[in-house]
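Lab notebook: predicted structure, single chain.

Context: the supervisor wants predicted structures on file for every construct in the current expression panel, including those that have not yet been purified. This is the next one on the list. No modifications to the sequence; it matches the entry in the shared construct table.
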Amino acid sequence: MKRRSLFLAATLLASGMMFAQLRPTNKDGINVFETPKTETEFKGFNVQLGGALTLPFSMLDHSNAVTRADGYRYDYTNPAVNSLVPLTSGFGLPQANLYIKSNLSDGIYLNFELYLASRHHNETWVKGGFLQFEKMKFLPWDFVDEIMKYTTIKVGQFDVNYGDAHFRRSDGGMTFFNPFMENHIMDEFSTEIGAEVDVHVGDFTIVGAVTNGKLNNDLTKIDTTRVQTKYSNGVHNPAWIGKLAYDKQVNSRFRVRASASGYYTAGSVKNTLFGGDRTGSNYYGVMYNAPLSNTNFTNGRFNPGFGDKVAAVMGNIFLKFSPVQGLSLESFTTLENAGGRDASEPDVRKSNQFV
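Prediction complete. Output recorded below exactly as produced.
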């Protein structure tokens, strides 16, 4: 695939600065990873609404060595195998998100997010929601107050905190956080039900989380006699997530962040770590050869299909250098090794990614 001219995705509307403990959904949220541990004054119950709207415009072209069916023009009725559908320039479907953020009590926050409209779903869908505890003053023990000086707890359905790339991805109408139009080819994003604990020690953040290991839950017993689930272990296993991150503003000009994280589930049948996006890609028809290319909402992405057992590790390095005020140079690197299988597969496969 080659970039012919320009691609642009602009967030036209975003809410203002949110509570200090919840990631801002305007430009102040750029390059924010785990929410920092900051002290804010509680001014009573408060609710804020915010929205994000993206209108993607694309001028992309692609090519490969496959001869098209008629030798010159693309034949929509009988395309050659692996020949690519011709692309044109224009706008994609607008996508919109809605954010509802509440400060319920001192140190207790509720975050609720909706997909109002997206390429994949034109109707409103709930993305997820979670409670976030920065303090637990409702508990009578002083040692809890000391622990919460360094600890953040999230409970609910939220983005799986595997790697740092999900903090910089386009998510429906929210594209402020991504310097590009689209995400990684292997897009590590899913919302799962669970709990996460972040411990902030100086410039280090330690993350531990456990989730149900799937986006779309299923409580029926797994029948391992069926071909589709023959190699499942027969149990709805949880997913375990861990991360260690170092983030330091070395001086007024230079910031460095390095992290290593892992994701593991022994089997869940419906795992979507690499296919949990319900909104759709901002690429239209890219690397696709079917006539109705716009119906494939994952254009430009690759899902390795690890629907059951998954073991993945990721390393990230983020560098930001500001030689003069108002000008910044950034570098963000991802190195990933993932392995897994579907419930119908006897062997584990591997898939690596470098970005």
